[in-house]
Write a structure and sequence with these properties.
alpha/beta; Rossmann fold; 7 helices; 11 strands; single chain; globular; 292 residues
Length: 292
């Protein structure tokens, strides 16, 4: 098994532009789970293999509840990605998490509804652990890289509450999430993080704070125009963070426990290989098929 890094980046449609990606090529990858958000752009950055996938499609045409999260993770796995770093915009539920700050999230509360949240189902029943949903190694490297990129403040750790959207929260909801202990709020990290774990892909998220959610008694309510404006301002910092990440990665990728998540996940492991193939899980569980 290769021990080289291959970082999959899920973020904005123009994130890879002007980043210095060498040997870049755009490819269309098919998935048994439907259409992904768009083509994957592959290349090398600082000698490290990267694959970029625009979460909302090219030109931001997909709403959060219209993203095919299963297909996105599946095609990254098919591209040979070893680890997934998500770049996402979030609202703040804490006064000290100000717009312009970045947060290396380490926990989630999932309030999404109606999204396909698992690769597994009838005939292939699997249960993966999600107590620690973020890879601490990748999250730490991402936070270090964000700090070197000149971002005003990088917070290590934080709880992300994922809501369905596409509307922003009511004030009552925002105050409730604050009481629950959430630190930031967004619409896309779930079920993305769940699916990455099922695909045995270490996952981390570098969240860009674009606004204060509407829990504050003073200040204006959140609106899309201001969110997108801060996102555009932060793109250069995100690109610089990725450059520093490429430079900081060890020359060889040490194995992660997440690489073997599925070893103990299946309720009925007997005769598993043909059931995995019939369910389109040749990429997600490809390691098990090779070892069978």
């Amino acid at each position: 098994m290769s021990n080289a890094w291959h970082i999959g980046v899920i973020g904005g449609s123009g994130l890879y532009q002007d980043i210095g990606l060498q040997d870049a090529q755009e490819i269309h990858v098919s998935s048994p789970f439907g259409e992904p958000s768009g083509p994957v752009t592959l290349g090398t950055l600082g000698g490290v293999r990267f694959s970029f996938l625009p979460r909302h499609g090219q030109g931001h045409v997909l709403p959060p509840d219209g993203v095919n999260y299963r297909a996105n993770i599946d095609v990254l796995k098919r591209c040979g990605v070893t680890d997934v770093l998500a770049i996402s915009a979030v609202g703040s539920l804490r006064e000290d998490l100000a717009p312009g700050h970045f947060v290396a999230v380490d926990q989630f509360i999932d309030r999404t509804q109606g999204r396909e949240r698992s690769f597994f189902g009838t005939n292939v029943v699997a249960h993966v652990g999600m107590a620690e949903p973020v890879c601490p190694r990748l999250a730490g490297l991402a936070a270090d890289s964000a700090g070197k990129a000149g971002i005003s403040k990088v917070h290590r750790g934080g709880c992300y509450i994922a809501i369905e959207g596409p509307q922003f929260s009511t004030r009552a909801e925002s105050n409730l999430y604050l009481q629950w202990g959430a630190d930031v709020i967004g619409m896309t990290a779930m079920p993305e993080a769940r699916l990455a774990r099922e695909a045995e892909l270490p996952y981390a998220i570098l969240a860009m704070v674009t606004d204060y959610d509407c829990w504050r008694e003073t200040g204006e309510s959140v609106d899309a125009a201001s969110v997108f404006a801060v996102m555009r301002e932060n793109v250069a910092f995100a690109r610089e963070a990725l450059r520093h990440l490429a430079a900081a990665l060890p020359s060889q990728r040490p194995a992660s426990p997440i690489d073997r998540t599925l070893d103990t996940a299946f309720a009925n492991p007997d005769g598993l290989a043909p059931r995995l193939l019939s369910a389109g899980l040749d990429a997600v569980a490809g390691r098990l098929l090779k070892e069978a």
